[in-house]
Structure of SDR family oxidoreductase:
Amino acid sequence: MEWRPPTREHQDRLMKSRVALVTGGGSGIGAGVAQELASLGHQVAVLDRVIEAAGEVADQIRASGGTAVAVRADVSDPVEVAQAVDEVTAALGPVGILVNNAGFAKDNMVLDMPLDDWDAVVATHLRGSFLMLKATAPAMREAGWGRIVNISSISALGDDDRVNYVAAKAGLEGFTRAAALDLAPCGITVNAVGPGVVHTGMTTVSAARAGRTLEQHLELQAKTIPVGRIGTPHDIARAVLFFAAEDADFVTGQVIYVSGGPHG
């Protein structure tokens, strides 16, 4: 097919504002994703279990001239998820872009892993992503357009002393591929971004678990990354923006690792 310059109509379509919902948006990668989506003119719902954190990010977006609302929910609770999506829809309209980012770590060696820690991590990362998709995808299907981006991790490829987190992220990647097949006929794409080492609040926890100061931990981690630096939330957000783009409709069921080097 011969390449042709984009028409004005096409350019206008690519700038269309959508309603974007980011879970775990009150800090770290989620906050970076919410801010980047808002910078492109999307209306953003910042969802977090800690409403104060979500509110701070929403305030920052509004102070920069964007549109944002803060919503509280535990993504593993179907009642809270349904209420949150109803609240977002009433405030901004139907969700067109969903970013499943909510998650946390409770690391331990497999034989020492408490069942409660296994259940809590899997419930948030995997069950939560399923519930959020179930709550938002019907409106996307009705509109004939939708973008779902799941935040995985290079840990999905295997990591020691965090079997619950690894299993949840590996499951999330399988969920991504399967949901992509189901929803492709509806005009909805489903993809995943797998961050490598990114400096967030969880980095401090990882440093403490390794018996290092944060500075020591970051220095050691940077030496293992081919590009020679630690990632930032905005590095991950830019990959999310690619999957969420209006003209990314031929890319679905994919996992891209954003880690400063090759993985997979």
Q: What stands out?
A: The longest helix spans residues 115-143. The chain has a mean pLDDT of 93. Strands lie at 19-23, 43-48, 68-72, 97-100, 146-151, 188-195, 255-258. The two ends are 32 Å apart (CA to CA).
